């Protein structure tokens, strides 16, 4: 009986290592993790086609779990449902155990990677603005006819210095910007 448990634990560890490799390639952009490396180190006894099918299956399951950012209860329900499927789509007890262990330990790292990928770059780091009014103009001075809004945007990418963009708006241009922002807000409210 103990020998069966040892073999089962070894299988769960190999599947966990496969998930780790798949995760490093998918979510952490580690180009050194190749299919040949994973197969050669973890499942050398499997023919290439069988290994590719196993890797694809585990990758698809991991993607589903990661996209849904499953909590432990959701994960258990998901794996139970996958275990009830028939044929090659069914998740074995070893696969479910490996997925559960992996997700408990790596959920935060995978989530951070997905969040980092979903951010627009460069991102808005800061915004400052002011309105300048023209003082009484002397004779023959042809200055601006009304107030000017000056907007400074601080843009940057992760771990890089910021870039600054300064925009100037007269009253008409500022009204256009405000109207567009109101349109965007209405559209978002309608879709929510």
Q: Can you put this structure into words, describing what you see?
A:
- The protein is of the alpha+beta class and 192 residues long.
- The chain has two domains: 2-118, no CATH class; 123-191, no CATH class.
- It contains six helices and three strands; from the N terminus they run H-H-H-H-H-E-E-E-H.
- It has helices at 2-27, 35-42, 48-68, 72-83, 93-118, 171-191; strands at 123-132, 148-156, 163-169.
- Strands 1-2-3 form a three-stranded antiparallel sheet.
- Helix 1 (2-27) runs parallel beside helix 5 (93-118).
- It is elongated.
- The mean pLDDT is 90.
Features:
192 residues; 6 helices; alpha+beta; three-stranded antiparallel sheet
Distance between the termini: 56 Å
Counting DSSP E segments of at least 2 residues, the number of strands comes to: 3
Radius of gyration of CA atoms, rounded to a whole number? 28 Å
The helicity comes to: 55-70%
Strand order of the largest sheet: 1-2-3
> What best-fitting shape do the alpha-carbon axes yield?
elongated
- Secondary-structure element sequence? HHHHHEEEH
Q: Percent of residues in beta strands?
A: 5-15%
Largest sheet: 3 strands, antiparallel
Could you say how many structural domains there are in total?
2
Q: Give the averaged pLDDT, no decimals.
A: 90
